[in-house]
Amino acid sequence: MTDTTLADVAAAPARILVVDDNPIMRLKMKKAVQTLGHEAEVAKDGVAGLHALAEMPFDAVLLDIVMPEVDGFEVLRRLKADPKIRHVPVIVVSALDDEIESVVRAIELGAEDFLPKDFEQVLLRARLDASLTKKRYRDQELEYFDRIDRLTAAAEELEGGNFNPKTLGLNDLVTKNDPLGRLALVFRGMATEIYQRELKLKQTIDTLRGSFWVIAIGICWGLTPALSRIVMAEGATPLGLMVWINPALAAIFVGLALRKGVLPRFSFRNIAFFFAWALVAAVLLRIVVLNASTHVEAAILSLVLTLQGFLVFGFSAVAGMDKATPRRLMGLLVGLGGVGLVLWTQMDGNAGTEIVWLLFALFIPVLLAVEVMMMAGFRPKGLDDYGALAMMLVAASLISVPWAIAEGQTFAVNLTNPGKLEFTMLVMVAVSVGSYTMGFHLIKTAGAVFYSQTAYTMTIAGVVWGVLLLNESLSPLAWVAFGIIVVGMYLVEPKADDKELKIERKFASE
Amino acid sequence: MSTKILDHAMLKKLLHMIGGEAEDFDEMKGEFLDAVPDILADLHTTDTDALRIASHSLKGNAQDFGAAQLTELCATLETQCKDGTLGDPGPLVADITTAAHAAMGALRELEATDLD
Questions:
Q1: What residues contact residue A400 under an 8 Å CB cut-off, 6+ apart?
Q2: Is A98 on the interface with B (CB under 8 A)?
Q3: Residues of chain B neighbouring A40 (CB-CB closer than 8 A)
Q4: Of A432, A427, A399, whose CA–CA distance to A253 is shortest?
Q5: Inter-chain contact B16–A21, Cβ cutoff 8 Å?
Q6: Which candidate among A6, A155, A230, A380 keeps its CA 20 to 30 Å from the CA of A278?
Q7: Share in percent of chain B as helix, strand, coil (round to 5)
Q8: Closest residue to B17, CB basis, from A24, A68, A121
Q9: H or E, element range at A18
Q10: Residue A13 contacts residue B20 (beta carbons within 8 Å)
Q11: What is the C-alpha radius of gyration for chain A, rounded to an integer number of angstroms?
Q12: For residues A337 and A1, which has the higher predicted lDDT (pLDDT)?
């Protein structure tokens, strides 16, 4: 087990219980035990002795046989019957000359050894040392078996796919400098290595998956400006558009939620959340966009929009909601560099922008960031994606329809004989359904900071869709910018969630 | 006087056993002087078993302190209790009491330094 010698084991100070009804004998044995360097406790009779044994741990007992009421034999019987203390060695103390039968009986009852009442100090030392050595080896054996049990339990955990070194319970086992300790160390080392590798792999997959969603959402939302310009050309108004699109979206998401049976309950907290969300996303945002777009150049507006990522990053850092590291900030800056590159090629140097309107346009990324943070941090617990979106869009419709009517911006659509306007509006609804669904999913799985990169892809996609649908020109530099944005995504990486990491693995034979 | 009643060789052995410190020896001495009168009182009983335990107890203490006569008298009483040969314990208990008081008197006058 260990390199400890017999002498080392026996010499270590021990705690000895002296049980004797005679006060002079008790004191003599206590002092004799202390002289040998051990700690001694005394008990004045058998009952007190058993009580002391139940109260605290002892390494050995010096037990008188002849005592009134509960004698030494009875103490031995009860001690050996108790699994918690049966392993404590007992040395019976007796006047050997006339008690030889008693000694034999005590040993038969489980006493480790005997000592004459008029013992010599060397004899006490020898008897105590022998008993303590046995006891300590037994203790080591028990501790060894306990460690084997725990190593086996850790192995079973590994087999079950849990490689997280923190939950394997090996941390105190590895500190022992013996073969079992070294085995535990190797065990934990291997588990850590596999765990780290799998964690890295999972993170890479999460980043790739997240990046796919960011691009997909960007492509979807990026269609909106181009589609808006098409419907405007067909005679639609921004507010009138909301009268048709918001209720249509609300109907679709209510339908999807009902199909899944996940419509949220109508609590005050839920309703307040949905109206606040709708107010930010469907009212304030649209007012600001409508006003800003008429005064600020489109490319500049897009650039301002991308500040959303930095605002979310800042909010997250302050609120401690999402991981805010220099690496992620660097990723956002790289992404901004990519978008800036594209917009630089689109910039119209002649159209000057008033600084007041530029500052006003800053409300757009602020509102977008507020919306993202609301969804990431204040979404009522247990809300399903569809159910939440359905309720938000119902609230948005309740706000936007009366507003558009009040402004006199409603327009008619021809449902019996749909034309370019109607088809484009249908595409807008489909695009919104896809974008909302994917966006909600991405915020939940990758976090608000990672999601906010959709502002970049949205801007780039807006430019590309403009080229494809409206024959606008695109510089080859835009493709370089795409690469730069992907590098940014790698740096930002989705929020890590290692609690769910479970690795499929089987060591046991079938 | 104490030399006859108490065997110094046994007392030296006791002193060595408890670590050789005069202070500890005085504590042992005090315990003996305190406890012996109680044990002597326990001898005034008609219960043979209680008598056996008390004589057994006093015998061990007398032996440790080198009180040879007291040890011998206690051993006799204990044996008689065990064998069932005990008649009237009165005279034997009286002898034990006398011997115990003699031993206590001798011990009172003894200092640990006398054993050097």
A1: A239, A242, A243, A246, A282, A283, A286
A2: yes
A3: none
A4: A432
A5: no
A6: A230
A7: 80, 0, 20
A8: A121
A9: strand A15-19
A10: no
A11: 40
A12: A337
Could you give the count of Cα atoms lying within 13 Å of A367 in the half-sphere of its Cβ?
19
pLDDT at position A473, please?
A: 64
What is the length of chain A? 510
The single-letter code of the amino acid at B8 is H
Cα–Cα distance, A188 to A173 (Å, whole number): 10
Kindly report, residue by residue over A52-104, the tens digit of the pLDDT: 999 999 999 999 988 888 989 999 999 999 988 999 999 999 875 656 788 88
Percent of chain A with pLDDT over 70: 86
Three state DSSP letters for A111-131:
CCEEEECCCCHHHHHHHHHHH
3-state SS string for A435-467: HHHHHHHHHHHHCHHHHCCHHHHHHHHHHHHHH
Contact between A46 and A70 (Cβ < 8 Å): yes
Q: Do A25 and B59 touch (CB under 8 A)?
A: no
A125-140 core/surface letters (b: 16 or more CB in 10 A; e: else)? bebbbbbbbbbbeeee
Q: What ipTM was assigned to the predicted interfaces of this complex?
A: 0.90
Within 8 A of A98 by CB-CB distance, chain B residues are 75, 78-79, 82
Token code pair at residue A199: 């964690």
How far is the C-alpha of A227 from the C-alpha of A231, rounded, in Å? 6
How many inter-chain contacts (A to B, CB under 8 Å) are there? 64
Strands A60-64 and A15-19: parallel
Closest CA to A445 of A386, A493, A491: A493
End-to-end CA distance of chain A: 33
Question: Which amino acid would we find at residue A21?
Answer: D
Whether B34 has its CB under 8 Å from any CB of chain A: the answer is yes
CB A69 within 8 A of CB A23: no
pLDDT value at residue B34: 93
A15 burial (CB, 10 Å; 0-12 / 13-18 / 19+) is middle
Query: At A45, is the secondary structure helix, strand, or coil?
Result: coil
Q: Tell me which chain B residues have a C-beta less than 8 angstroms from the C-beta of A18.
A: none
A121 closest CB neighbour out of B16, B32, B63: B16
Residue keyed to tokens 């050997």: A96
Q: Report the alpha-carbon angle A408-A412-A413, nearest 5.
A: 150
Number of residues assigned to chain B: 116
Of the candidates B34, B64, B78, which has its C-beta nearest A28's C-beta?
Answer: B64
CB atoms within 10 A of CB A412: 9
Q: Which token pair is A369?
A: 């960031």
Residues of B (44-83) whose Cβ lies below 8 Å from A = 50, 53, 56-57, 59-61, 63-64, 75, 78-79, 82
CA dist A407 and A240 (Å) reads 9
A69 token code pair: 């009421």
Task: Give the chain B residue whose CA is nearest to the CA of A97.
Answer: B75
Q: Average pLDDT over chain A, rounded to whole?
A: 81
User: What is the C-alpha separation between A359 and A288, in angstroms, rounded?
Assistant: 11
User: Measuring CA to CA, which residue among A240, A362, A233 is closest to residue A304?
Assistant: A362
